[in-house]
Give the backbone structure.
Amino acid sequence: MKTKQKIVDVVNERSLWEGKGDIKTYLIVLLITLIPAYILWYLMIPALNLKSVAFWIYLFLISFFYLMNLFFYASIKRKPASLKVPTLVLVLLISVMVLAGIGGSRIFHAKRYSQILQVEDGEIGLIPSVDKTESIALMDTASAERLGDREIGSLSGVVSQYNVGNYIQINKSEMPMKVSPLTYDGFFKWLSNKENGVPGYVIVNPVDMSADYVSLQEGMKYVPSAYFSKDLARHIRMAYPNVLFDNLHFEIDEEGNPWYVASIYDHTIGLFGGKKVIGALLINPINGEVSRSEVKDIPQWVDVVFSGDLICDQYNDHAQLQHGFINSIFGQRDCRQVTVMPSEDDEETYIPDYGYIAKDGDIWVYTGITSVNGDSSNIGFILANERTSETRFITSAGADEFSAMKSAEGEVQEKRYQASFPSLINVDGTPTYIMVLKDANNLVKMYAAVNVEQYNLVSTAVSQEECIQKYRTLIHSELEIDDIADRSDFEEKTITIQKIQTIDIEGNTWIYVIDTDNQIYRAKYVDVIDMIMHEAGDTITILTDGNMFTMK
């Protein structure tokens, strides 16, 4: 009670605000603050970098702690001190964070945000052809987890001490694979196993639906599930105290050696805006060696430097902010976005989703591109390299991935199978979704192929080969019907051309026209030969049913 009364008396005297203070008092309080300041940094491990939001939060917390220490020390010891400067420092820190956040926002820098990801046009030929379906990763993470858990469950010495971590999609020997390291099952399991380290990892083949446990000759000691100095993020921070990094994940090289990879990034717009990946950290989890590489020098075996989520966010900025922030909200001219699905936690929250393709020794993410109006159709796709961020936009109108999934599920609705997020393949020049159908236990039961342009064209079978064979027969029959289709219901329409593209399908050349409303029309080139005289920006009159068209 006496201490409390002293504090009240000092505050009433206003000496903490008006007194000049003794330099010795400030130094003593500073020394008192140093130890908790280091402990807090050790726990938070923020980058010592002005572009790190966590660093500014850390400075605020330490300044606040110093202010409280000064208040109580001066009050109890009845030492003269002024709280004005520490309080002003707190106000300044808050002001800088708020102003930096606003100043680097998309409202003021829409054009710069739209240019972070460079997107080039691509052709249908970039999509893996039907004879390379071994490069398509059809299995989703839930199924991989089921197979991996089953494999680990038979190893009593492993399953009692470790869990299976998060799976990451990689390319190994031109084959898509999912890998996951074992993780310590809590602090006490780490304490009893830290000398030997994590003994291995799980690798799942999403093509033949198999899983294997790989035992290492020497365990991984520097991992995210370890503690203190062996905690991987803390180990990296000690080696690179000022580097901004995230996307810390597990990978393996072509020889099966374990590695952890983290993406190095920078904020290129203001202090906190315009996130851009500029390199990677490669960590050997066995001996803890950390090396840094620029993007152009990253080894070929590294697969994920630019995460799929980051690529989707940056593409949305590219496709929505190119004509300014106001247009992205109101007019929305030429605005597009990646396909999204409802969040499992909140059906009103939508998150991007994407599939994976193993191509040219790398993992590419693909996702459909649709209008911002939330309809269920795509105007094309993007393929993006997760190692280099090389991104290609491919024009191809049709149903989005989720409509295709529902269409496939409808073919076997009596079995109540659920479709996985599809991958994209090129079947004789025709963009096609291919996916697996799973039962309630996440076990693969069937395969399904769905035509992108006409998602009512669906084939299902118990094997991938049979599914594709049935699908080929289906689309070839449909193309023959297209040749003799009744066009009496075509209506006249005037459009402005945004883009023209030709595609070869089964020896026939088709022409696709995209208008300024992002509507896509197609026709056999021989039927609209006059289109050779037109280019982007021309206004023409056509006869169309909304899909096929002829010249008026």
About this structure: The longest helix spans residues 53-77. The radius of gyration is 29 Å. DSSP finds 14 helices and 27 strands in the chain. The CA atoms of residues 502 and 511 lie 4 Å apart.
